[in-house]
Write a structure and sequence with these properties.
Length: about 300
């Protein structure tokens, strides 16, 4: 099982949702909440104040971490907190390596002590550069608490080792979930499947469909466990848009997918697709990086 979960916090409801997701999803893990004071900000004293901005941000960081401890206490779990200085995403990435973090859970965006958002660009940088798997939570804590996690889990697959590792991750860590394995068929040209019927391109559709069905069958072999609830879905379309649309329309509770996958002509779960889904999805998205082993 996953051992050390890092949750960056900034006081927003989205970062609080990251804590909630982590506590519910990984009850046996060790948790650390990190708040990073951005050293790139000005630290001058405001008029009429004896404190520098840095001192006020430290006070705020300490209050935010205290709030995180209250969330942990309500959930009945132990939480370590850490206050750091630096560029937020770089500091988080360094902490992942230095402290042997296994997984990162963070809000897709949040609120900083000034107007500009804190976790928008930070979460994207962590998703792109982290050496471990990450979960992005795009909804506020109140909405996340309405989900019965692990719930319905959408797992896009394309036959790549990384997408199968994500599938193994999902079914091993969340055996009580209800899984849908999705394979998306993408044409190398812009057209609808119905427009191809009766044309010389129809055999191409048949071949791609047969390949897709084979990929889903191979994925089912990875989860050959009668106790798991698993169904499959084969769709035509642009991968990221198809994943996002199905997740919304079918009311999935979360998406778990590989951080990268096959390249052309079988491109389904490429790095850019994974990043796009993590940016646009309205439910939690976990991007699994590297091979999964039960000892994680």
């Amino acid at each position: 099982m996953t051992r050390h979960i890092l949750v960056p916090v900034d006081g927003s409801s989205h970062s609080s949702a990251g804590l909630t997701y982590a506590f519910v999803s990984f009850p046996d893990a060790t948790f650390t909440a990190i708040y990073v004071i951005d050293t790139d900000r000005d630290s001058y004293r405001s008029a009429g104040s004896s404190q520098t901005n840095e001192e006020r941000w430290r006070d705020q960081g300490e209050r935010i971490l205290e709030d995180a401890l209250e969330v942990a206490d309500d959930a009945g779990v132990d939480l370590e907190t850490i206050l750091e200085h630096g560029t937020p995403h770089s500091t988080i990435l360094e902490y992942i390596v230095d402290q042997d973090v296994d997984h990162v859970v963070m809000g897709s965006h949040g609120e900083s002590p000034i107007v500009r958002p804190f976790l928008g660009h930070v979460s994207e940088a962590v998703v792109r550069r982290a050496s471990v798997s990450t979960t992005i939570v795009p909804e506020p804590d109140s909405a996340l608490r309405e989900r019965d996690l692990p719930g319905r889990i959408l797992v896009p697959v394309d036959g790549s080792e990384q997408s199968l590792a994500a599938l193994e991750y999902a079914t091993t860590l969340f055996p009580d979930g209800r899984f849908t394995l999705l394979h998306t068929i993408t044409f190398p040209f812009d057209t609808e499947p119905g427009a191809i019927e009766g044309t010389y391109l129809e055999p191409l559709v048949d071949d791609l469909t047969e390949q897709g069905e084979g990929i889903l069958e191979d994925a089912l072999e990875v989860v050959a466990d009668e106790s798991l609830v698993v169904e499959t879905e084969l769709q035509f379309g642009e991968p990221a848009r198809t994943i996002e649309k199905l997740a919304q329309q079918a009311d999935f509770d979360q998406i778990i997918m590989g951080s990268h996958g096959r390249s052309l002509p079988s491109r389904i779960i490429t790095g850019s697709v994974a990043e796009t889904v993590s940016r646009r999805a309205t439910n939690p998205v976990t991007l699994v990086r590297g091979a999964f082993t039960e000892g994680e």
